[in-house]
Amino acid sequence: MPRDAAVLPAAAAPRPGLALPREAGWWLLLLPAFLLMTALYVAPILQVLAISFTEPTPGLGNYERLFTAAGVQRVIGTTLRICAVTTVVALVLGYALAYVIALASPRARRWWLLGVLLPLWISVLVRAFAWVTLLRRQGLVNEGLLAAGLIEEPLKLVWNEFGIVVGMVHYMVPYAVLPMLAAMREIDPRLLAAARGLGASRLTVFGRVFLPLSMPGLVAAGVLVFIVSLGFYITPAILGGGKTLMAAEWIKLQILDLVRWGMGAMLASVLVVTILATLAIFARVVDLRRLFGGGH
Amino acid sequence: MTAVARPGALVAGAESAGHALELRGLSKRYGGFTAVDAVSLRVERGQFLTLLGPSGSGKTTILMMIAGFVAPGEGAVLLDGRDITALPPERRDFGMVFQGYALFPHMTVAENVAFPLRVRRLGRAAREEKVRAALDLVQLSGFADRRPSQLSGGQQQRVALARALVFDPDLLLLDEPLSALDRKLRAELQEELKALHRRIGRTFVSVTHDQEEALSLSDQVAILNHGRLVQLGPPEALYERPRTRFVAGFLGHSNFLRGTVREVAAAGSVVQAGGTRLLQRDEPGPPGATVLLSLRPEKIALLAEGEGAENAVAGSIAAWAYLGAGYSLSVATCDLGVLHVALPAWRAPIAPREGLPVRLGWSAEAAVPVLEDADAA
């Protein structure tokens, strides 16, 4: 008994060496990951930002080219146009897919999801070349259309913006499906039954109830697809055939081929700022935590 | 559609605006499971019918077949004699209050109530007028611009009612309308719902598993079990003259006494149950037949010393509980097993305690003969 009495007060008293607040322990656990992120991710980005202001001469010279150089403007215009078209097409296809999956039986839903996610496991390089073989002059699509007598001569399906959009849409559809599917699964099916019971046709139920309720998912998917599209490199490089330049490929060209670090860093910084600005705007509209899998 | 064109308010005058609904041999099977088995019944115009049964009794499936969400395997649904079995739900013009209300979360209260009018392409002025009248009817006039999420459960329930009634539906269907509410609010809304039904004079069909709700609201109650209609009738008739053991046990509480008919005479019959001879005013069966009697706990009285009754049995209290308004006693008798007795607590003749010897008595009309459920099928 006396021994117990001696131990208890010692255990209850705070140990002098570790008088940190309770939460400090948790933050210490996060520290390695934080340092890794800072060293490998944040620091290089800051360095890129710095280069864009210092190379070749200190000042805003690189950013001035945004407003004066037609080449830069053309690249930005092309990038925005291709990303916008990709986003719209991926959203339309993805919405239809998500709709079918959301209303499917649990068994069918698993197969549909597998079909949607399967492309994600195939290398983007393989997929880009697969599209080239399908879409080129002697590719399956052109040969098929020629054989069917639908066209007189091969269509230009690849090594242009059309080819890039096809490849990018193919890549982006799963990213469009998942946020929209999550939003659709949250819609109470009784609401759809209620709308029909109150006299709405299937089309009206979709337009007045389902579509508005799935809108957060649609917006989230749009933001996600657009942002990811902005940074596309391999797909446009292969399916564009070097003729259609998008931002990522142009940056690579500046830095690796022309050794104009300042210009490359400038456009990279513009991309990063554009993406952050887009996120900031839409964070006010939709719940981003839901988009990135948090929340609930 | 014709219902919407009718101007005028929701409140009907003396003339009944309801429609008569008839179900003919309605059946529904899911694989090997029979959810609804040959249910036929008729609801007269302006009546309040409740489908009552335990979960899995098929009551909700029947409602869904009336609403048009579930296609019957066999049988027909008729409205005023017209076969509407093949009509899709949106063309039936039935108002419906869903379980959990199913209010549209992205619309305000007014937009929710206006929804049935909007899909019927009613003009803006007429729409606003009707929405206002419907919200007045459920006493929610000040809540038009709120979102459903900003309302209490009871208020949401009223919005669902207003939305279901705003287009003057031929029939109002209610799926467990009060089950999501707490007990006190439920009692309040029961009264309101009943008053609303009287006021607008439409035909209501409701589904519930709550026997109290069914008894207090309905003109007619249909008791369902295992997909079959067991008994249909006014609440009092079902409670006082249950046809089967299931009905007697499901509506309120009941003691069951099994015995053999010994004599049938003008003054009453004698049923032998164990060593006790029970006097029954009615004729439960021919002499020699085995019968089952249902005896409600509140119809058994505690007999004072020397007091007589047409039926009397001695026993002792095996268990008891105080319930505020009364005591619930379980009395062990030597011949009739354990009998449950409901004793009003106000001026109770005894202070219950375990082992207390008591004498129980009931009149010859108190018990009613019921069928075993297997025999009733």
TrEMBL record, chain A:
GO process terms (BP): transmembrane transport
CDD domains registered for this protein in UniProt: TM_PBP2
Topological type in the membrane: Multi-pass membrane protein
Main localization (coarse): membrane
Record's GO cellular component terms: plasma membrane
Source organism: Roseicella aquatilis
Protein name as catalogued: ABC transporter permease
Pfam families membership: BPD_transp_1
Keyword terms: Cell membrane, Membrane, Transmembrane, Transmembrane helix, Transport
SUPFAM superfamilies in UniProt: MetI-like
Similarity annotation: Belongs to the binding-protein-dependent transport system permease family. CysTW subfamily.
Domain ABC transmembrane type-1, first and last residues per copy: 76-282
Residues that span the membrane, as ranges: 29-53, 82-105, 111-134, 155-173, 218-239, 259-282
Residues forming coiled coils: none
Cellular compartments annotated: Cell membrane
